[in-house]
Amino acid sequence: MRKTFLFALPVLFVIALFCGCTYNLDDDSQNSFVFKFSCPKEITMKLGTIDQSNETASAPLYANFDLDECTLEYDKEIINYDINTGTITALKSGETKIKATAGQKTVSVNVVVQKAVYCSYLFCSASEKISLEDTAQLNVKTNQSYNMGIDYQSMDTSILTVDANGVITPLKSGTTSIKISAKTSINPSNSNGYSMTYTTTAITV
């Protein structure tokens, strides 16, 4: 019995040493545990940008263990996620969450994919001749299937002004142009967020 006990001691020591050197994903208390997304908690992406490609985003997953040991959950119809490169590719509009789990620890990032609808056709008559006593209505044609609006800008407000509805009010004789822009569906509040700009010439007599 004593010999058996003495023989077991070295075996137990080796087992303890091996366990102490092995990384245990289930032990969240270890200070050496690194497992996180290096990106904002929420990512917003566009589907179908102006060059007709789908947008990608980066959400690198950092860990001090083999990433093959963790499991991923997300809606594969909305996005595709490459765990090795951290690249998210938009597939269709919607919202999903990338959830990565390793042992008892879970990290996640929310992904929102918005459909980008851009105006690709915008037309206005080349010129308008109006008198100082009259006003004129700009008739703009567009293939916008959404109501994001048209922006009008007089390039010389001393000659004429134009309101938000495209009504021209002449102030004095002269020639100037009006810049007409169709807003995009992604960020209509952004002054640079236009998909197409067309300039027409308005002539007052």
List the helices and strands and how they pair.
Elements: H1 2-21, E1 35-37, E2 42-47, E3 56-58, E4 61-63, E5 71-73, E6 79-82, E7 87-90, E8 94-102, E9 105-115, E10 122-124, E11 127-130, E12 136-137, E13 140-142, E14 150-154, E15 160-162, E16 167-170, E17 174-183, E18 194-204
Parallel strand pairs: 2-9, 11-18
Antiparallel strand pairs: 1-4, 3-7, 5-8, 6-7, 8-9, 10-13, 12-16, 14-17, 15-16, 17-18
Count the DSSP helices: 1
Question: In what order do the strands lie side by side in the largest sheet?
Answer: 2-9-8-5
Shape: rod-shaped
Strand residue content: 35-45%
* N-to-C SSE string, H for helix and E for strand: HEEEEEEEEEEEEEEEEEE
Largest sheet: 4 strands, mixed
Stretches where pLDDT is under 50 for at least 5 consecutive residues are 1-23, 187-192
Class per helix and strand makeup: mainly beta
Q: Over the alpha carbons, how many angstroms does the gyration radius reach?
A: 31 Å
Determine the fraction of residues in helical runs and give it as a percent range: under 10%
End-to-end Cα distance, whole Å, is 118 Å
Please report the total strand number as a whole number: 18
User: Kindly state the mean pLDDT as a whole number?
Assistant: 77
